[in-house]
Amino acid sequence: MDLRTKLWIAAAMCFLVVGAVVVAYSARPRALLVIATTTSTVDTGLLDYLKPYFDQKFHANMTWLYLGTGQAMAVAARGDADMLLVHDRVRENAFVASGNGTHRVTIMYNDFVIVGPSADPAGIAEATSTVDAFQKIAAAGASGNAAFVSRGDGSGTNAFELRTWSQAGISPKGKSWYFEGGSGMAPTLRTTNEKQAYTISDRGTWIKLQSTMGDTLNLQILYQGDNGLLNPYGLILLNETRYPNIQSQLANDFFLFMISDEGQSLIADYKVNDQQLFKPVFGKPETIGLPLETAEIEYWVAQLEANGMKPPSWVSANLGG
Amino acid sequence: MPLVEMVNVSKSYGTRAVVKHVGLKLEEGMILALMGPNGSGKTTLIKLAALLTRPSEGSIIFDGVNTECGDSKLRQLRRRMSVVFQRPALFDMSVEDNVSVGLSTRGNDEERIRTKVEDVLTRMELTDLRGRRARTLSGGEAQRVSVARALATEPELLLLDEPTASSDPRNASIIERSVVESNANKGTTVLIATHNPHQAKRLATETAFLFEGEIVERQSMGALFESPKDERTAAYVSGRMA
Amino acid sequence: MRGALSGWDVIISGVAKAVQLILSGDPTVLQITFLSIVVSGTATLLGALIGIPLGTVTSLKQFKGKSAVVQVVNTLTGLPPVVVGLVLYLVLSNSGPLGFLRLLYTPQAMMLAQLVMVMPITMSITISSVSAIDPDVREAAMSLGASPLDETLIMLNEARVGLLTSVVVGFGSAISEVGAIMMVGGNLLGYTRVLTGAIVLLTNQGEFAEAIALGIILLSLAFVVNILLTILRSKFAGTSSYTASILVSPAESRSA
Fold first, then answer.
1. Are residues A313 and A185 in the same domain?
2. For B172, how many CA atoms within 13 A lie in the half-sphere containing its CB?
């Protein structure tokens, strides 16, 4: 029957196509590593930079979920990611304490900067501290001369921002001069640009956006350098017992890679517009005023050795090795 | 044994009785014309005979087989007959493909299908229309194809429901000729519902008059028109009834 | 001082760079486009393979609750994609019931999300098209003694333009979907990043040239879809106008 033949041909073609697709996608040549991370590591291009090195060394396919710190932790808590790279020590410690994560180290840092319009209506260039700067912004905002754009997304940057408001004795939520975007660092900066408002950003994303947007970015760094503005990043290994389905082996490899001499050097080498965006700090958290992580450091140095990798030069020096 | 026998057949749609207590015998090789005013139940009677609908009461026996049977048996019986409806109801394909549908569904091989289709297309003067998409034909041409489709399978029983009602004279005459030929050469039994007394006189070996779902009378050849026995028949044939 | 055209030069230079990217055969652009077509194409194909037979059976058979089924299917064509994304995410998540399948953040998850949205569309349009077939045609098929399979095939042939339309409309809605596939796909570079997700990400990061390039491609695909629909619409001219009117059904207007 002519129609029957047509039907068989159509059905055969459909099954062929579907079959081909299924086969193509089941055969994943490289193991996939999913990192739940914050937007700044992505927006700065750091992970893109590290990817080819990691992929090649471990024959893997490193990918990342572009989220804020809060979201990243929620995703990791559900076991939907293999690794966590975020920047909020308070919540990181809580994550480990809850047993969702087994190991945590500080691997790198950059700092926050407060940016705003070059006219600086709130006059924060003369601020004496971060808290003072925020108070000046609130005052200017109340009199209608300034605005502040918050990420409002539960990210590490957002958490830092909120803690600072709280220290300043101000509750900005709902005020007419306070805008919450609910989005990543780069979009927040661009919104700030559009509104010619103030915001707080990590230096890395700021530098990257400067290079992307060039002249169209009409903002300036108005306050920086305060020790309180230091922004450390933590790497957390997830509990493989609690999440048996994650790529724990590959996650372990990534951990080792990031803290090794090679990884830490790569982080230091990553530059945009000749500016270093992140400073490696594994094994020496005390140098930026953070508590010691001796137990973790010892554990991981041993792990590095067991895997034929070297710790960064300053760590070996410390341990006299 | 008659080819088709209806015993006390009634058909109602809801509370409306369309066919009432009809008893009908169709002998093999007969051409029975079914006449009656609009709404008298001619179409329903044709559909009952075509086994496309089951009677509400009574039974229909085809070639000795009671049609109160399962679907697959019913399908086998339907394959021995063909229906031409009032409206062509052609499939959305070429004329040639339309005509061959019946043969394909009966599992004939390519060669046989081609031969038979060729034969029918020639007989019905459709060869130059063979590749045309059925939907683009005129009403008369479409009806001709419909008849060709019905005849291609060489049915034992041919049922036609006012087949030439909307055809021009040329199409009508081709259709009538092919029905008569089929009956003469292949012994096809024919049941044809028609409004046209001339057509009935031309084609039929017997004529029956259907009024409000009942068969009022039945006579051979054109006797129904010359000497109707019932006054309702008389009113109809003389044009006093719609 | 900003001139009258200053706001436009971002767009203009973006378009210029975008055309360059496309013409130079940039591998990332190609990969993302290819992935989009594969994911949406497979979802549409599967949606048709399931939706068309189901729709045909629903249309041809009489059964209890038939009108309820048709209502439900028609309502499902308006399913908000983000809701589909949310539900699928919770189901496929490692801590969800189907977590062991490890489907989250894979292209298969995206195909699944799009399948859920395409299936009601193909089924709904199929039901409309098949129901609109002249009942005499079905009787003619029966009268020829066609087996149920042959009868169905004849009906499908009658409705073939409508069935094709359902596939085209389904594909159109799949390829332009953005919320659900980002939620279950994770927009992972080189792996689950398709045109729509990439455009969102690139726009957020200020990479306008690339975003525009992908936007041009997506527009072109949507354009092709619409041309196909127009061709199909003209073929409908030969059949009943009721069938043609289903092209204005809610399902189709959502695909744009």
1. no
2. 15
Range of the domain at A147: 111-229
Nearest to C145 among B79, B89, B135 (CB): B79
Residue of B100, B14, B4, B131 whose CA lies nearest to B59: B4
CA A137 to chain centre: 26
Instruction: Give C49's DSSP letter.
Output: H
Chain C contact for A228 (CB, 8 A cutoff): no
pLDDT digits (tens, 9 = 90+) for A215-244: 888 899 999 988 788 889 999 999 999 988
Question: Are the beta carbons of A38 and A67 closer than 8 angstroms?
Answer: yes
Residue B219's closest CA among B198, B240, B238, B200?
A: B200
Q: Do C46 and A4 touch (CB under 8 A)?
A: no
Contact B97 A1 (CB under 8 A): no
Which of A63, A208, A216, A248 to mutate to test binding with chain C, by most C CBs within 10 Å of its CB? A63
In this predicted structure, the answer to whether residue C6 has a pLDDT above a threshold of 70 is no
B193: domain range? Answer: 4-237
CATH of the domain at B60: 3.40.50.300
Give the tens place of pLDDT for each residue, B164-188: 988 889 999 999 999 999 999 999 9
CA distance C150 to chain B (A): 7
ipTM here: 0.85
CA–CA distances in Å: residue B23 to residues B83, B208, C88: 21, 12, 64
Nearest CA in chain A to C2: A216
Can you say how many angstroms the Cα of residue B167 is from the centroid of all Cα atoms in its chain? Answer: 16
Neighbours of chain C (3+ CB pairs under 8 A): A, B
Return the closest-CA partner of residue A294 out of A270, A276, A318: A318
Residues A103 and A141 in one domain: no
- How many interchain CB pairs under 8 A, A with B? 6
Asked if B102 lies within 8 A of C145 by C-beta distance, the reply is yes
CB pair distance less than 8 Å for C154 and B101: yes
pTM of the model: 0.80
Question: Cβ separation of A78 and C93 shorter than 8 Å?
Answer: yes
The answer to whether B94 and B130 have CB atoms below 8 angstroms apart is yes
The residues, any chain, with a CB within 8 Å of residue A161's CB and separated by 6 or more, are: A150, A151, A200
Q: Among A37, A71, A80, which would you mutate to test the C interface (most chain C Cβ atoms within 10 Å of its Cβ)?
A: A80
- Per the structure, the count of domains in chain B is 1
- Mean of pLDDT over chain B: 89
Whole-number Å distance between alpha carbons of B44 and B42: 5
Specify the CATH architecture of the domain C7-253: Orthogonal Bundle (1.10)
Averaged over A146-158, what is the pLDDT? 88
Query: Which chains pack against A, by 3+ Cβ pairs within 8 A?
Result: B, C
Low-confidence ranges of chain B (pLDDT < 50): none
Confidence category of residue C255, pLDDT binned at 50, 70, 90 = very low
Per-residue confidence band for C5, with pLDDT thresholds at 50, 70 and 90: low
User: C144 and B93: CB-CB below 8 Å?
Assistant: no
pLDDT at A317 over 70: no
Question: Domain segments of chain C: what residues?
Answer: 7-253
pLDDT of residue B148: 94
> How close A3 comes to chain B (CA, Å)?
9
